[in-house]
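Researcher: I need the complex structure. Ligand is N-(iminomethyl)-L-glutamic acid. Inputs:
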Amino acid sequence: MLLTHLNAATMQGGYGLIEDAAILIEGGRIAWVGPKAESPQADNIIDCAGRLATPGLVDCHTHLVYGGSRAHEFEQRLTGVSYAEIARAGGGIASTVRATRSQSEADLAASALRRLDSLLAEGMTTIEIKSGYGLDRDTEIKMLKVARELSQWRPVDVVTSYLGAHALPPEFKDDRAGYVDLVCNEVLPAVAGQKLADAVDAFCEGIAFSVEETRRVFEAAHAHGLPVKLHAEQLSNLGGAKLAAAFGALSVDHIEYLDQEGVEAIAASGTVAVLLPGAFYYLREKQSPPVATLRKAGVPIAIATDLNPGSSPVHSILTTMNMACVLFGLTPEEALRGVTVNAAKALGLSDRGVITPGMKADIALWDAERPGDLAYPLGFNPLSAVIHNGEVVRGML
Ligand code: NIG
Ligand code: FE
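Model: Output:
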């Protein structure tokens, strides 16, 4: 299949824009990309009518699978109760844990598919999904199974993270060490043994787990050959990012309170900084992530929806790109890199996120003139078609 008459944002260096380009796809992979005038022969030639091609989008941080709703907490927060206060009073993550434990796999899958469909309508071809609303072994496994199964129902690649260290479950409220033992000695080995997780995540925060507790989880992850990532410095600066860097983490996520030392540590370890403007927006956070320092240190920046029922009920990656620009001062180019090449890197995937020969043929086609047009509007979706593994899975070509 040869796609011709398109502008290709290859994302190889900046936008890597090739105007009036063609892309040859063979066997689910990109075989060639370049100016249309130089394109190779092909049987199946598709005129893309001047559309913009980008890599299929990657959402590298979501909590897509969960039960229940936290709409009442949204209302509470609007009357001035904080996210941390709600969590300490037994709401927050714990409330979603109760709902998720009580739901069947089929119910969890049905609600997750509805949310996934919103994301897919905006050109997504890879999504990361975390566990962390079960906290006991069976529910964590149930969540990860549901997450993996979603790719059987929709044209999307699912990458999973085991997030056992998300919150202390009520049955361990007087035994923190006991819960960390359960995560490290029982659940993580089971999850790794069944190959249900591609990485291990944790929430290092005053209302969640300390640096020392997180270290134990990371040691167990490495012992089972799994890479790590971390919810770090979201509400305060505990130094979680430095710990993550020491473990060669794929990413540190949120990082509003990351300091210079933390930035230097992740720059040295090649860890991706994942910014989550949806949570910043919903929690009306005042502290912005250190974008200028990250840029200066050359840290790759990704952005993600953080789709979850509490801090970020955001179901739109295009909106997230816009928020990253307006709230954090990213350029539209950084925003697009943040949901393509750098998001793939945050998941440890080197076969996608750019349009170059050898990469997976995951491509989004847009009714847009320039790549900068994607982050510019709010609530407008210029998606025209999606190619996943070399097959047209959405729109007509
Ligand atoms: O990424 N920070 C911790 N975890 C989630 C929130 C989960 C929740 O509130 O349910 C986050 O923001
Ligand atoms: Fe999160």
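Model: Summary of the prediction. The chain has a mean pLDDT of 97.
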